Amino acid sequence: MALLDVKNLSIRFAGRSAAEDVHAVRGLSFAVEAGQCVAIVGESGSGKSATARALVGLAGPNALVEADHLLLGATNLLAFGPRDWRAVRGRQIGFVLQDALVSLDPLRTIGAEVGETLREHRLVPRTGIKPRVLELLASVGIPDPAQRHDQYAHQLSGGLRQRALIASAISGEPGIIIADEPTTALDVIVQAQILRLLSELKADGRGLILISHDLAVVSRLADHIIVLRHGEVVEDGTPEAVFQRPQADYTKALLAAIPSGRTRGQSLSGDAPRSAAASAAKAAQPVLVASGLNKQFGQRHVVNDVSFTINKGETVGLVGASGSGKTTLARIVLGLERPQSGTITLNGAPWSALPEHRRRPLRPRVQLVAQDPLGSFDPRHRVIDIVGEALEIIDFPAAGRRAEILRLLASVGLDAVHLLRRPRELSGGQRQRVAIARALATRPSVLICDEPVSALDVSTQAQVLDLLAGLKRDLELTMLFVSHDLGVIQHVSDRVLVMNDGRIVEEGLPDIVLEQPRHPYTKALVEALPRLPVG
Amino acid sequence: MTDLSSPLSPPENASLRKLRRGRLRPGIVLAALVLAFLLVCGLWPQLVAPYDPYGLDLLQSLKPPSWSHIFGTDQLGRDIFSRVVHGASYSLYVGVGATLIAVCVGIAIGLTSGVLGGWVDLAFMRVVDILLAFPSLLMSMAVVAFLGTGITNILLAIAIAAIPGYARIVRSQVLVIRNSGFVEAARVLGQPPLRTLLRHILPNTIGPLVVLSTLGIGSAILHSASLSYLGLGPKPPTPEWGLMLSEGQGYLRAAWWIGVFPGVFATLAIISTTVLGRYIKAYSEGRE
Question: Chain B closest CA to A112's CA: distance in Å?
Fold first, then answer.
């Protein structure tokens, strides 16, 4: 018998009238067997998290959960009240939450958090709690559990926090574990470790429900993949079937939208096929030259003797895990941080050494597309003000400003409809387009893209990457592209810099660096990258 | 592949937002009506008041509420209702005037402190700390003792007592905005700092403050009534609510209406500005 059997599940959030009801999920059916993993994949708004929450009775007071049946073993979960759910949660179904930083109580020790289920369900005698917690911490691979037991969440790294959450989820020996985006906030190497831990739990005979936006992440673990879109199941099958012979157009588009080395020079969103690699084979003309950059914050050497060159029309990818110093390096290049030693020159003239008042007139030449476009716009301003401000700074004649704004918006795929919108009224992809339009308004010599697609869904990411590729070709853009995502870096870069602990550890063509890495760190990074089993 | 180009916005946000909007609770409508009435009283008292607030009529003294004098008359035969109506202008004058001054000076101090930082910030904030250490009513009394009594001096006293709080709020708001992504974006564009200050920092600071100041008007009215009650405000026979309250105190057994009605009006004014202020605050934060 299946551990959990879901038949025709639908989740509805009640509106004021039946017409305003929001159908988060419709007609979802699956069964979880012992030692099996069901993956539910979808973009934001697909209903995947609503499903996860409904399965532990946390769908919320205004959610209507209906199903033909919802069976946990032989128990009917549909008839459950809050008390019944409390007996199930932690004991029969373990729930691993998404964000380890906010999901752990900052005022309680890790030991107290992990021991919570043991105490609540009175699973072991009071004196047995601590030894059991230490055992659990060790079993999820937390080194030195005795020390960690008494520490607080903020003293642990992201990976350790996620492990602690998993330890807490398995503490009641549940038969089923639901993990909602368990690796989203982690970098690739830690992500690979967490995925390995989850696969061990699966091998122990637990049923696993994995919720993710990332097809590549689930491909390693899943025995059954369900692709959701707007609450409807669009694809449902074994990994082989989903990856090799996807049935729905949406799944095909999703698979095609994942950037990697193979997709370089190709369109990801499938809008217009493009001719590849026209920019190569030109005499190298250095635009930005950095030499011997150093930056220390207290004892930490965040940027350590970094030198590189960016040539005209070239995209240099900067890849590294969180904490590797890549964001600080980008801020030095932008002139927002001053290096302690070393210099950056721009078109042969000094840049980093200039005092602020002399750099200010030159600032339009180095522009930024940030990770969080919403935060980089004044919330009171409309799109026309946001782009217009950049034109005002380069003294663009006021008479032609509106036309120029429209031209810039058109170049990023927006039109006059968006002129009067405020940032909050735009979708994530549209916001990033506005950010790109603003950055291009000053006709910069170098464009710094700091994780520009990290906050976006795969399909939106594909559109933005395609847009940048098109602009690069048409305008001969020179770019420094910072990302933690090897696939994205491999897709966009002409040359790659790999950064670790403040140093550039490897540099070269993306195919060579990322297909045949030499430095141990690059090797670890590449091995940890989840890959799709597509031919 | 047309599927991918359509925006993937979750529909739930829109309907939730619709649910929250357009729901006016009766308490808020009532508060707005009371304030509107007081505003008319304050601006055009002769439209509302049936008698001269200073007009003596000793034959009609100490009459209880009746159809000809709905709030009754005082010991000198003056119509209480007319006096209460005329009193609205003093309260509104002090409430709005003191808040306006306090907000403007508070912005100036908070902005200077937050933008310049360093020793300027340190100096301003220590002074603010010292001023905040005194209860604001005590503070106002000290200022009145220094400036002398009278309605305008009360206004200044209340304004001075309220400045430190506003300065604090503005400063912390400035510190948040100064480190925001859009101020950094302006810097990357090469915008001169003064323009960034005027275009991004100042407007984003004032917004929340305007909301907060509506709450401040209520407490300014309360303070002005308290100071007048203590005899630090205008002199008799001015129809000021706090003063009328203290004058009516001696007759509380014989003629309760002399003291009670000015008190009721002051309470109504304070409650309705506070209710409305809270509503505006909640609305601007997206809670209503």
Answer: 34
pLDDT in tens, A147-192: 889 988 888 877 788 888 888 888 888 889 999 888 876 778 888 8
> Which residues in chain B come in under a pLDDT of 50?
1-21, 288
Pairwise CB contact (< 8 Å): A334 & B188:
yes
What gap in Å lies between CA B151 and CA B240, rounded to an integer? Answer: 9
Q: What is the mean pLDDT of residues A32-50?
A: 88
Q: pLDDT, tens digit, for every residue of A239-281?
A: 888 888 888 888 888 888 888 777 777 778 765 544 444 445 4
Question: If you write DSSP's letter for every residue of B261-278 in order, what string do you get?
Answer: HHHHHHHHHHHHHHHHHH
The interface pTM score, or ipTM, of the predicted complex is 0.77
CB of A334 within 8 Å of any CB in chain B?
A: yes
Global confidence as pTM: 0.79
CA of B17: which chain A residue's CA is closest?
Answer: A15
Q: Is position B221 within any domain?
A: yes
Specify if B269 maps to a domain: yes
Contact A16 B4 (CB under 8 A): no
Select from A271, A364, A370 the Cβ nearest to the Cβ of B190: A364
- The single residue listed with the structure tokens 């205004």 is A62
- Rounded-to-integer distance, Cα B243 and Cα B259, Å: 9
A249-257 and A458-475 helices cross at what angle (nearest 10)? 50
Q: Give the model's pLDDT for residue B7.
A: 38
Banded model confidence at residue A99, pLDDT cuts 50, 70, 90? low
Helices (H), A442-515: 458-475, 486-492, 510-515
Judge whether B29 lies within some domain: no
Question: Which of A24, A270, A459 is closest, CB to CB, to B8?
Answer: A459
HEC profile of A331-358? HHHHCCCCCCEEEEEECCEECCCCCHHH
A364 at interface of B, judged by CB pairs closer than 8 A: yes
The average confidence (pLDDT) of chain B is 85
Give the domain CATH number at B253: 1.10.3720.10
**Domain-located, residue B11:** no
Select the residue from B20, B189, B196, B285 to test the A interface by mutation, using most A Cβ atoms within 10 A. B189
Cα-based angle B218, B222, B224 (whole degrees, multiple of 5): 115
Q: Which residue among A24, A375, A460 places its CB closest to the CB of B182?
A: A375
Residue of B9, B19, B207 lying closest to A45 (CB–CB): B9
Asked if A390 and B189 come within 8 Å (Cβ–Cβ), the reply is yes
Domains and CATH numbers, chain A: 286-378+443-528 (3.40.50.300)
Residue B198 DSSP class: I
**pLDDT score at A283:** 64
CA distance B189 to A411: 20
Cβ neighbours of B189 in A, within 8 Å: 363-364, 367, 389-390, 393, 438, 442
B192 touches A: beta carbon within 8 Å: yes
Contacts of A372 in chain B (CB under 8 A): 181
Q: How far apart are CA A376 and CA A423, in angstroms?
A: 10
pLDDT, average across residues A65-79: 86
As for how many domains chain B has, the answer is 1
